[in-house]
Structure formats: structure tokens, C-alpha cells
Amino acid sequence: MSQLPPCPQCGSEFTYQDQDLLICPECAHEWVADGAVETDDDTPVVSDAHGNLLQDGDTITVVKDLKIKGSSSVVKVGTKVKNIRLVDGDHNIDCKIDGIGAMKLKSEFVKKV
């Protein structure tokens, strides 16, 4: 029988595994069994078009011409955007683009610089 690690929250030795999660029956804490880093904050995990993880404050480049809804303007390929902020939702990048202003972008149309 394999030894499961104790609960990182309360230290209980009575942990059990349910698929990919380890669960503590005493405090009901759940964590990933494969040793992945667990984060307590609510920052979303977002990756760019090439699979690179994005973080708040990163600089990105647009990889496709993007029409701006309700306008005749276009965000061109290669436009650099500095100091992005990650948010929840379908358009998960909040940023300001020079010459255009505040926008929300989808991470699938950008790459990390």
C-alpha cells in the first residue's frame, strides 16, 4: 500500500485519494495528488496562442488582425501591448492599446514577448 502525504492544512494522516485529488476527511481540504503547485489566490491560469503561461504585467504581441466591435478600427498583427491584467471570462486579458484605448482581448490571439 502506498503512503499518502498528510494534509497540508491540518496535518491529518487520514488522507485518501479520489482520482487526481487527495482529500482530508477531517478538514475537507482537497489538493492535487501529482505534486503540482497549489495556489490559494484567485488569479486565473491563462496561456497564450503558443501555450506559454501569462501573468499580470506581461508584455504580449497580437498574432492576428482583430476588428474592434462597433468601430472601423483594427488592431494589427504585431501590435505590442504592455502591462496586461488577467481577468475571468471569455475575453481574459484587460489592457490598454496605444492609439485605441482600453480593451479586452482573448488569450488565443496573443503571444508572450
From TrEMBL:
Residue intervals of the Protein YjdM N-terminal domain: 3-31
Family annotation (SUPFAM superfamilies): Prokaryotic SH3-related domain (SSF82057), Zinc beta-ribbon (SSF57783)
InterPro entries given in the database record: YjdM (IPR004624), YjdM_C (IPR013988), YjdM_N (IPR013987)
Protein YjdM C-terminal domain mapped to chain residues: 46-113
Family the entry assigns: Belongs to the YjdM family.
NCBIfam families: phnA (TIGR00686)
Protein name, as recorded: Alkylphosphonate utilization protein
Species, as recorded: Modicisalibacter tunisiensis
